[in-house]
Amino acid sequence: MIRRFLTSQLFVSTRFVSQYYSKKKILVPSRLGVTPGNQHLQVNLFDDENKQSLGRMSLNEAQKLAKFRELILVLFDESHDPPDVRLMTGKNLAHIRDETRANKKRELSNEKIADFALRLRPHIADKDLLTKLANAKAAYAKGCSIRFSLDFGHSIDEKETEKLAARADDQKAFLARLKPHLEEFPKVHTNSKSVRSIILIVPSKLLAEKSTKKTDKSADVQQGEAAEEESKSIDIEDKNINISRNIRRKSV
User: Fold this and answer.
1) Measured between alpha carbons, how far is 240 from 228 in angstroms, rounded to an integer?
2) Comparing C-alpha atoms, which of 88, 81, 93, 86 is closest to residue 41?
3) Which of 104, 146, 154, 251 is deepest in the core (most CB within 10 A)?
4) Cα–Cα distances in angstroms (integers) from residue 176 to residues 8, 108, 119, 120, in the given order
5) How far is residue 130's CA from residue 142's CA, in Å, rounded to a whole number?
6) Which residue from 174, 121, 113, 172 is spatially nearest to 144, judged by alpha carbons?
7) How far, in Å, CA of 229 to CA of 235, rounded?
8) pLDDT tens profile 165-191
9) What CATH number labels 2-110?
10) Rounded to an integer, what distance in angstroms lies between the CA atom of residue 63 and that of residue 87?
11) Domain range summary for the chain, segments of one domain joined by +
12) Nearest CA among 25, 22, 217 for reference residue 103
């Protein structure tokens, strides 16, 4: 009986450690249940209502304080050791859970950039072309990267020079037709080009925004370094002038 009791208590305690001390950030703050197997474990308690830290204590003590204040014991961040636990009202807990989910979805949507594929043929009607281009622009506005696949038909043998020349003219004419519409995108580059098809890629605007942020940061760093170098050179020049003046005075 004693061995069975100790085994069950060890299992409960280990389960708590693996669940709340896994060093992984939880998706959303959640209500923390206190059991005989985990009540002795230490946590950092924060009073969300009064915005103050209550220090480090056992879960059992934190639960007593929560009952006395008629608040909920919430596991807020388990990546710390000991984990962060808060005293919160049910209304605040619901609000912060919704806010955390919304931020997480926003982060995931920014990380995963979808591709919008568009297949076009040179003899497409103007109305259909405008419809497809409108769909592409709408997808680009949402952060998608656009892939234009211009299909010109079957392959042509190298010996058939006249057909190859005609195909090249068709490609030039179709690209000239698309040019006014493609100029509405900030950047378009050719991914591949052959007798049968031409692949054009429009990078996602999210990538463009990230690259501009990086360039702005690097420019600020370079400006700061240049200013430091300039100030150092001015200091050196001032020192040299003072030294030369002292030498002249001594010689006089």
Assistant:
1) 18
2) 81
3) 146
4) 76, 38, 17, 14
5) 19
6) 113
7) 10
8) 999 999 999 999 999 999 888 888 888
9) 3.10.20.80
10) 9
11) 2-110, 115-206
12) 25
Structure-token match 């622009």, residue found: 137
Amino acid type, 239: K
Query: Residues 175, 148: contact at Cβ < 8 Å?
Result: no
pTM to 2 decimal places: 0.42
Give which of 186, 190, 189 is closest to 211, Cα–Cα. Answer: 186
Q: What residue type is 221 in one-letter code?
A: V
Q: Which fold has domain 115-206?
A: Translation Initiation Factor IF3 (3.30.110)
pLDDT digits (tens, 9 = 90+) for 1-53: 444 444 444 444 333 433 443 333 445 777 877 788 878 888 888 888 888 88
CB 26 within 8 A of CB 75: yes
Smallest CA-to-CA distance from 113 within 26, 181, 216, 201 is with 201
Chain centre to alpha carbon of residue 145: 16
- Token reading at 74: 């919430």
Q: How far is CA 214 from CA 8, 76, 186, 219, 248, in A?
A: 54, 32, 18, 9, 51
CB neighbours of residue 70 within 10 Å:
8
Q: Which two tokens stand for residue 173?
A: 């004419």
Residue type, 119: R
CA-nearest of 199, 110, 183 to 151 is 199
